């Protein structure tokens, strides 16, 4: 008796598993460190820094947390990898040129802030993450070279690196907070200006008189003003006797 043609492997796979059977387990998919970083960025930008955990990243990848530990030691390393990924997206720093060192410093700060603003939440991570990755170390080296090209004493250059890094990251962090704050829509500055203007002129004369100036400057304008002030301060510290011999204080 002719039993007819058999069922091929492809035909078997095309037939759905009956609901009373346990579905066959798919083979374990190999994941990469880049995929982990991609998933972590997705969680960070969607849910914020507080929600970024290895478990959340594993859920984003539809895998278990244990599968991540073959590539990252834990959350601290994951955060460092995230920051280094974003730093790697920044434009290549310039070769230091003493006549224009201040302009180069300013542009590097702008580039850093712009890259941080592309990824909501990354500024909060960067505030507490030491620059240990290859991209971060490269950018640190280039920034120090620019600062030293400006004739700054070594100790001043080292302190300036920390100061400018904190300023840029804090500016991006504040922008993140404003974007995430509930009710802080486009009318928020105008509402704040009206509130300041409504205060008692006897008790808050300066706040009332400067209400518009306190609330109208855009974030970019405020950032540029801060850079102007910081860079002007550095100009005053070039070749100052004794500054190169400063030693860190206690604590």
Explained architecture:
- This protein is mainly α.
- The chain has a domain at 181-235: Tetracycline Repressor, domain 2.
- The protein contains twelve helices and no strands.
- The protein has helices at 9-14, 33-47, 54-60, 75-88, 101-118, 122-127, 134-149, 154-180, 188-197, 205-209, 211-215, 219-235.
- Helix 2 (33-47) packs across helix 3 (54-60).
- Residues 244-251 have low confidence and may be disordered.
CATH second-level architecture of the domain at 181-235: Orthogonal Bundle
Q: What percent strand?
A: under 5%
CATH topology of the domain at 181-235: Tetracycline Repressor, domain 2
What is the CATH top level name of the domain at 181-235?
Mainly Alpha
Distance between the termini: 92 Å
Can you identify the CATH superfamily of the domain at 181-235?
Tetracycline Repressor, domain 2
Task: Give me the Rg, rounded.
Answer: 27 Å
Helix share bin: 55-70%
Largest sheet: none
Summed over residues and divided by their number, the pLDDT gives a mean of 85
- List low-pLDDT spans: 244-251
Q: Which structural category fits the helices and strands? A: mainly alpha
| SSE order | HHHHHHHHHHHH
What's the total count of β strands? 0
């Amino acid at each position: 008796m002719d039993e007819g043609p058999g069922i091929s492997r492809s035909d078997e796979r095309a037939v759905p598993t009956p609901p009373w059977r346990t579905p066959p387990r798919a083979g374990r998919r190999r994941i990469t460190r880049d995929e982990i970083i991609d998933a972590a960025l997705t969680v960070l930008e969607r849910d914020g820094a507080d929600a970024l955990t290895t478990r959340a990243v594993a859920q984003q990848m539809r895998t278990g947390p244990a599968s991540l530990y073959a590539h990252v030691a834990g959350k601290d390393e994951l955060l460092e990898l995230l920051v280094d990924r974003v730093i790697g997206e920044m434009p290549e720093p310039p070769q230091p040129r003493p006549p224009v060192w201040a302009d180069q410093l300013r542009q590097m700060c702008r580039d850093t802030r712009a890259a941080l603003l592309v990824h909501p939440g990354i500024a909060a991570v960067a505030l507490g993450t030491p620059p240990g990755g290859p991209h971060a170390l490269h950018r640190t080296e280039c920034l120090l070279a620019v600062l030293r090209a400006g004739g700054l004493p070594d100790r001043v250059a080292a302190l300036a690196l920390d100061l400018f890094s904190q300023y840029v990251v804090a500016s991006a962090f504040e922008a993140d907070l404003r974007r995430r704050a509930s009710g802080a829509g486009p009318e928020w500055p105008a509402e704040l200006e009206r509130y300041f203007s409504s205060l008692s002129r006897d008790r808050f004369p300066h706040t009332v008189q400067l209400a518009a100036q306190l609330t109208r400057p855009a974030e970019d304008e405020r950032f540029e003003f801060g850079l102007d002030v910081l860079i002007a301060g550095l100009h005053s510290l070039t070749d100052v006797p004794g500054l190169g011999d400063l030693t860190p204080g206690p604590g």
